[in-house]
Amino acid sequence: MTAQEAPEGGPDPVVPTEAEVVADLEAVDRPPAPPVRRYPSTIGGAFYIGIMLATAIGMTIVVLGSWRTGVRWIAGALVLAAFLRLVLPRKDAGMLAARHRFFDVLFLGSLGGLLLFLVQTIPDQPL
């Protein structure tokens, strides 16, 4: 018995041809292709890049010798990140949204505030 033959007493099986299968597959509604992605894809992503640049500037200033000014840059970037996370909706926050909004704002704001406090209160040390 071949694949095209029906078993005895049963109806003849209908096997579609390759062209029919292709036509059926082409007729299926497919979802539209996603739009071309913009980089960064959210406004929060652009802000995140800005925060990272400000932090890199701060690190560069620290390495060049003015540690207080550099740490102020880093602290300012963290406080700005906390503010942006507070005001941006989750879908627009991009990589600023790591966890829940409350935790993100609390962590970033506390770390930035602590750095600013330390920069202001650590006394100058003689070399």
Report on the architecture of this protein.
With 127 residues, this protein is mainly α. The protein has a domain at 43-121. 61% of the residues lie in helices and 0% in strands. The chain is built from 5 helices and no strands. It has helices at 18-27, 43-64, 67-87, 90-93, 101-121. Helix 2 packs antiparallel against helix 3 and helix 3 (67-87) runs antiparallel to helix 5 (101-121). It is rod-shaped. It starts with 17 loop residues before the first helix and ends in a 6-residue tail after the last helix. The model has no long low-confidence stretch (mean pLDDT 84).
Q: Give the termini separation.
A: 97 Å
Give helix and strand order, one letter per element, not per position.
HHHHH
Spatial shape: rod-shaped
Number of helices: 5
Instruction: Give the biggest sheet.
Output: none
Uncertain residue segments:
none
Mean pLDDT: 84
How many DSSP-defined strands?
Answer: 0
Tell me the strand percentage band: under 5%
Fraction in helix? 55-70%
Report the structural category. mainly alpha
Radius of gyration: 30 Å
